[in-house]
Amino acid sequence: MEQLRETLKGHHLRTTTCREDVLLTFMNKKNALSHGDLEGALGENYDRVTIYRTLKTFLEKGIIHKVLDDEGLRYALCSHQCSEEKHQHDHIHFKCNACGKTNCLENLHIPHVTLPSGYQPESFNLLIQGKCPECLGNN
Amino acid sequence: MEQLRETLKGHHLRTTTCREDVLLTFMNKKNALSHGDLEGALGENYDRVTIYRTLKTFLEKGIIHKVLDDEGLRYALCSHQCSEEKHQHDHIHFKCNACGKTNCLENLHIPHVTLPSGYQPESFNLLIQGKCPECLGNN
DNA sequence: AAAACACTGCAACATCGTTGCAAGTGTTAC
DNA sequence: GTAACACTTGCAACGATGTTGCAGTGTTTT
Fold this sequence. Notes:
Two copies of one chain form a homodimer. With about 140 residues, chain A is of the alpha+beta class. Chain A is built from five helices and five strands. The termini of chain A are far apart. Chain B binds a DNA duplex (30 and 30 nucleotides) through helix 4.
């Protein structure tokens, strides 16, 4: 709980109950969350718009990042310390086609890809879809 | 023009002017297109809903596939012959942050990634963002 | 304590995508 | 060619998603 406040303070944000709750939700559920997920979890306490704005603020400050799969947009906590100035997001995300959850695979990096000449890459994002260990275990 | 009809026939679809026009638009513009792009190009001739349904049908039949970047959902022609039964889409997409266009890089494949044990991958999707040759040339 | 600033909720709006239904069109069989 | 059928389209309505302006409230700073 103190840690939450540290995180917010560290990114120059005021600690409000909404921000604490959103951050807490991200830390409890470990997978990526959509606005709808958060609204489902916290919607009785906070306005839809406030949740949108909280996500936008967290994005700008580098607390969370976007995660994309074929179903749409979600968000997940940044693992390495990102800030407003610098984001480091050459992520691998894994989406399970059985349970539908999407996670960051933290400790992998994306192998080098040789692009055709003339292309100047700036960021990489790999989405792998398949079955996650938990779903395979339940067969 | 005949080729269009062949493509539609080959996927067991009736040839209608809307489907021909949508297909033609994909073949002329080479980058990935959103529903909005198509509505802008063809909206005076066809209803919004019809375009949505055409995209949905093309997706199901394997004529186009989804392309995701940080801005949302687009569609692009399938290069290899996909069908209703089988899609092969381990794609690399390049999105230019200057002009905003997203393209498939056809001739590259995604290098092998070793996943933690327990994960069973089924498909791979790599999005690279940066600057495209055309935009770099204009500096 | 007052002024400046940031956050929230509400209302309204814009965009995006879906569904049901009636009318129209392409395809097949004769 | 024509009739019957199934598929496709346009319209209207709806739901979901995301944004903006503004007034009220709470925080910081001095």
